[in-house]
Amino acid sequence: MQSFSYVALPAKVTFGFGTLSQLGAEIAALGCRRALLLSTPQQADSAEALKTMLGDLAAGVFCGATMHTPVDVTDDAMRVASGLQADCLVALGGGSTIGLGKAIALRTDLPQIAIPTTYAGSEATPILGETQNGVKTTQRTLKVLPEVILYDVDLTLTLPPAMTVTSAMNAMAHAAEGLYAREANPVITMIAEDGLRALAQALPAIVADPADRNARSDALYGAWACGTTLGSVGMSLHHKLCHVLGGAFNLPHAETHTVVLPHAMAYNAAAAPEAMERIARAIGASDAPGGLFDLARSLKAPASLASLGMPADGIDRAVDLVLSAPYWNPEPLEAGRLRRLLENAYAGVRPENAP
Ligand code: NAD
Description:
The structure is a single chain. This protein is an alpha/beta fold. It folds into two domains: about 140 residues, 3-Layer(aba) Sandwich (Rossmann fold); about 190 residues, Dehydroquinate synthase-like - alpha domain (Dehydroquinate synthase-like, alpha domain), CATH 1.20.1090.10. Helices cover about 50% and strands about 10% of the residues. A six-stranded parallel beta sheet has the order 1-8-5-4-2-3, sandwiched between helices. Strands 6-7 form a two-stranded antiparallel ribbon. Helix 5 packs parallel to helix 7, helix 6 packs antiparallel against helix 7 and helix 9 packs across helix 13. The radius of gyration is 20 Å and the shape is globular.
């Protein structure tokens, strides 16, 4: 056993079927009486239904959440929160809605209850990414960590299979990079490996039957485990690449993670053999990067950056951006190898394991 340091994050997690019915009690337990409910426009009906369910405990609804937490949307939501004299935030949705709750909490210190309906994992992290004038900046502060997470498996049954797969691959990326993180520790390693196992086992069953409640339950548990990993240890090349690609070419978040992950893992494979062994075991494959690529293919996930709309001449720009701000990665970053990684991801070929 090597020396390590581990900080547990202070949040209450409730997991199960039908847990939404506990929301009123959770708001009261926080000492609050006027919740502002947050959602995307696509989930406005669910937020309105929640408002009806909560009665007097709901001060109002703001359903303008959108991808990458634009600051102008946060400003609008802040005005609504202040006008309604909200004393807590309830975010019902995926990473976009939970991101909005975090952005308001950063500015107001209002307590948050996150009710995740995707597998992205943001609810379990003290991380907030915000976008202003086309630039996304990320910060880590306990001020944005939701006080309460209410996982209700029933709310995930409507997540379409394609989004289910890419959202889960986004979660698996947190666990994979957590296993070879510089701050890796035995607690998070256990959690990350189990998160990968749960998601890899659940996904084929969900794609076969999106209403499979047991598989949905396993997947949501896996999402919590992978999000917890992201919340506790630092990420490396994969997350940096996805950040750059999303920002430079406006590529969709979860799909970009899905395409890039096997290639980023292949890049790091020789430098992180123990992590690769754990990942391979968790997903039931003999080779981690190839096995993950094959799993994604079998689930009909997008395989190439070209199919996501990245321009072919963007590869060199992406390499330059990745190299422009050095950061830790198990394998040293090198322009030629990064270009090859991106060419493979662009074309959607099975990843190479070679340094
Ligand atoms: P999302 O929140 O943008 O949701 C995608 C779409 O699916 C939205 O229209 C949403 O309303 C809809 N949707 C969500 N749940 C649904 C359900 N159960 N049924 C039907 N439709 C549903 O997507 P996401 O991938 O969850 O989140 C992506 C965002 O989260 C990005 O901005 C990313 O940067 C951020 N993120 C942040 C962290 C963090 O720790 N800060 C972690 C992961 C992702």
